[in-house]
Amino acid sequence: MSKLIFFSVLMFIVTNLNAADKYKLEDFSLNLNSSLTPPNHLWVSSGWSTVNPLSTTVMGVGDCIGAPLAGKDFKLFVTLEANGHQIKDVGSTGKGDVGLLFQGGQWQPDKIIRKGTYNYLIDNNIISLGVQSELIPLYNRTGFIIKCSIRNRLGTTLRIKVSPEITPGNPNYIPLNSWTYSQPGAGESATSNGEGIWSNNKVKIALFTESPTFDIPANQSHTSYIAVTFTEQSSISVPPQKLRDWELEERLAWENRLNRALREVPVIKSSISGLDDYYKRSIVSGLVSIWENPAFVVNPFLATSGIDGGATCTYLWDFGGYIPRMACLILGDKVLPCTKAMANIGLDKSYAYTLDGTGIGVPYAYSTWSFVNLVWEISKHMGINEALFNEARRLVLLNEKLESPNNLIDYGVQHNLLEMRSAGWEHYVASPNAERAWCLERLAEMGEKISYDPIEIKQWREKSLIIKKAIQSQLWDPVSHWFKCIYPTGHTELVYSIQAFDALRAEACTKEMEKGLLEHLKDGRFLFSYGVSSVSAEDSVHYEVNDTDWSGGGAYTGDGPDLALILYGQGKSGIA
């Protein structure tokens, strides 16, 4: 899945509507027939559970995850029996009587809708039925529902039996402090007790069905429910009187989340082709990263990705670097506990926290800027929080202790910076040194509003100017019109990385430098039909296409809008 990304777009018309009138869940739907998402990346989440449909099946289900439980290697297939004839749903692409044929469907934030058809002569009698399923992840518990609507297309009554078949796989219980970037690992194999229960030493899987056998009159439909829950081995899962109650519980949770989260988010109508849909996609990429389990360190919990059960940690760079404005709008005052949890991990040691608030990762070069950026946006939305301001000040001043005699900081190697796959943007670099100046200036502005020590505020502003002068005199290469990266040995690299443009946002460039940087922002260099490349194709040493993140040659979806906003801020609306 893509990382959590929200961006403000500047060419728009904002309409002021009540939250309930702004968006409906259906507004964020995606046509599965036009999706290129790999099957193992297609998930749907309730904010508590997330589940993966089995590719090209109409009712099949794969892994289901809801921390601390993980239904790994799980599979559920459904067989329909129509007038005694078995109709398998296994996603077959063969010919003949191969069972239910997949017709596509749509993804919504709250469910995945799939359609299928069966139309075949059996003993000279036609059996014809249509099937629509809804795969619904459960809320307040780990598991899912399959809501199956079967339409009898015959002129006579059809006798139907719905038979789910489960392969329990290797479910696992994983402590909340062990959920990081990867999907959870598998546990021991689960076995059946013969009564709709499968278990291993940690997890119990329970299957529930309602009225699995029924008659459908001519040209009529019938809806059937199947549910599966995952609990700790010693727990008992009790279904409601009607499985539809669990369906309604999940739908209500999503509607409440939509109304709460989008109350302050503007609706955008643009004359730019495709921008409306892009904006909706960026909003929903954030909505599906919100988890609402009260056992987590904060509720709501903002995961860096999470819809497939991986990256269910909160990563400061995503939270404070890319999305602080939209995070304030979507989370409201709940952004404060999320930010305080980030401050509590010790950002000079870690860059993310797990589901229980444990810090993970390494000292990251962009952590200080990301945190100050987040605190700055919070101050604009709801006033200055002095505790957060003091933590931001601590981080900035701690960072300044790393300074070398040349007034620049050596930010280390790849795992502290961009994670490029070759030597390049390392040690003394324009960004994040330019962000240092930006942070000092934001501290000064916030400090003035809370009547902080004016002498220290003056020192921060003076230091910001010194850093900018150092970048201009020591890192700028007037021949290439680009920034050098300098190693402690004196070795230099010219890396045409999109990171260089961040120096514009920090106002660390002279007019001549600004002009020089923008000379490289052209088609076939940084700009391509698919977006903005992280490394310019003119850079024959560092350009490559395998890494599509911030450092590689591909186009990470966060960079284009971010660069556009920087250019808008510089008054360069045409190229933006």
Topology (SSEs and partners):
Elements: E1 13-15, H1 19-22, E2 30-31, E3 44-45, E4 50-53, E5 61-66, E6 69-71, E7 75-82, E8 85-87, E9 101-107, E10 112-122, E11 125-137, E12 142-152, E13 158-167, E14 172-173, E15 191-192, E16 197-199, E17 203-209, E18 213-216, E19 221-232, H2 244-261, E20 267-269, H3 275-287, E21 290-291, E22 301-302, E23 314-315, H4 316-322, H5 324-331, H6 335-344, E24 352-353, E25 359-360, H7 367-382, H8 386-400, H9 430-449, H10 454-475, E26 476-477, E27 482-486, E28 492-494, H11 502-505, H12 511-518, E29 527-528, E30 531-532, H13 559-569
Antiparallel strand pairs: 1-20, 2-9, 3-4, 4-5, 5-6, 6-14, 7-8, 7-13, 9-10, 10-11, 11-12, 12-19, 13-18, 15-16, 16-17, 17-19, 21-22, 23-24, 24-25, 26-27, 27-28, 29-30
Strand content: 15-25%
| Oligomer state of the chains in this structure | single chain
Strand line-up across the major sheet: 2-9-10-11-12-19-17-16-15
Per the CATH scheme, the topology name of the domain at 30-255 is Beta-galactosidase, Chain A, domain 5
Key terms:
30 strands, disordered N terminus, elongated, 9-stranded antiparallel beta sheet, Glycosyltransferase, single chain, Beta-galactosidase, Chain A, domain 5, 5-stranded antiparallel beta sheet, 576 residues, alpha+beta
Task: Report on the architecture of this protein.
Among the domains are: 30-255, Beta-galactosidase, Chain A, domain 5 (Distorted Sandwich); 402-569, Glycosyltransferase (Alpha/alpha barrel), CATH 1.50.10.10. Helix content is 27%, strand content 24%. Strand 16 (197-199) and strand 17 (203-209) form a beta hairpin.
